[in-house]
Amino acid sequence: MKLWGGRFQKDTDKAVDDFNSSIRFDARMYKEDILGSMAHAEMLGKQGIIPKEDAEKLVKSLQEILQDIEAGKVSFSVDAEDIHMNIEKILIERIGDTGKRLHTGRSRNDQVALDLRMYLMEQTVQVANLLKTLTLQLVSLSKAHIDTVMPGYTHLQKAQPITLAHHFMAYSQMFMRDMDRLRDTYRRTAIMPLGSGALAGTTYPLDREFVCETLGFSAISQNSLDGVSDRDFVIELAADLSLIMVHLSRFSEELILWSSHEFSFVEMDDAYSTGSSIMPQKKNPDVAELIRGKSGRVFGSLMGLLTMMKGLPLAYNKDMQEDKEQIFDALDTVTLCLPVFTNMLSSMRVNKVQMRNGARGGFTNATDAADYLVKKGMPFREAHAVIGNLVFYCIQNEKSIDDLTIEEFHSFSTVFDKDIYDAISMEACVEGRSLPGGPAKAAVLSTIAACEAFLNAYHCSRE
């Protein structure tokens, strides 16, 4: 008979057992379930709700079960439905009636909320650390490419010259925001729900603060209905993970483009590329493509969670069992992608010459030519028109702006002088944009320093 089966007169259908069971995916929370039960048992003994010797026996046996699970000596049962009932069933088998005291003053509703929060707190820290490693790698690459000139793009059309360091540090900003969001999510996840019971608390004199402190939470939940039915923290983490995958996918898309023959800005290391079964010349950026593709899995998890929760009345509903597979898969995907992306990035080869040549083409210094005229006293709109006509002339004659003779410049405006060549060099175009946040060397170095300060001070854990 199931541990909850007292009022039932017949066994659950075997197909329903399989359908209802969550042990195949919530088994990964065994450690959190046992640690939560140990804290609960210790509290029950401290409060005199159960005999102190029984509490000590429960804690000791639970510790042994944890060791046996980690040693591979324990098998879980579908019939016991979930990780909570499996642990309790094993406990009762080992120590008899004393094991039946463990569930005093709690419900599976607040128990699963506790386990899931504990598990996601740990996983959030892991993801934040992986992001920190990636961002440190970006800082290192930015320092190495502080002078590597490349074209910047809008609409995927060449726009203005920047540096590869400036481009990399744009992604560092995204990943730092991701880390910040994870830290905020951790804070809202670290709320201890045990003591909420099924929905209305319990008549036993539980010491919720003791359990909160023992398990490393920041505070206790303030409403028992919300304590068992809140899954905002799961959805919020899924949203954080989705944004991480947006950023990884955008970055991957650029690396895929850059590694194409048409760009030839970078070459992926052989260890992070694959070949073709039919075309011997191929070197495919499959790692970047897979990361780009896997973003859809994480977005799907977020949408699944939102859809699951949108129509649920208070308090707990069985629908909420669906939260775990969604968030677990999202976490598994992100923690799979981040390390391989970091290693792929650190091992790729940058073609500095090709990047610089790319910046010289496409009239990326046209804005600087217009600014040159403005600084000589010409109104900007007039300067814009002059350079537009000049660019059209260059296209017709297959020239770049800096290939023009001074006589050709004068045919468009007598304001041009020989110093135009210095004003529109790639170095001048980059270094002239020295405002905070710009691509000039000093500005990028300042951004790098700010990023390093953020990373050095960053921690995602209980404050």
Question: Helicity level, as a percent range?
Answer: 55-70%
Q: From the helix content, strand content and strand pairing, which structural class follows?
A: mainly alpha
* Unreliable stretches covering 5 or more consecutive residues: none
Series of H and E elements? HHHHHHEEHEHEHHEHHEHHHHHHH
The major sheet is characterized as: 2 strands, antiparallel
Whole-number mean pLDDT: 95
Number of helices: 19
The percent range for strand residues is: under 5%
Q: What is the overall shape?
A: elongated
Report the span from N to C terminus. Answer: 45 Å
Q: From the alpha-carbon coordinates, what is the Rg to the nearest angstrom?
A: 30 Å
* Strands side by side in the biggest sheet: 1-2
Instruction: Tally the beta strands.
Output: 6
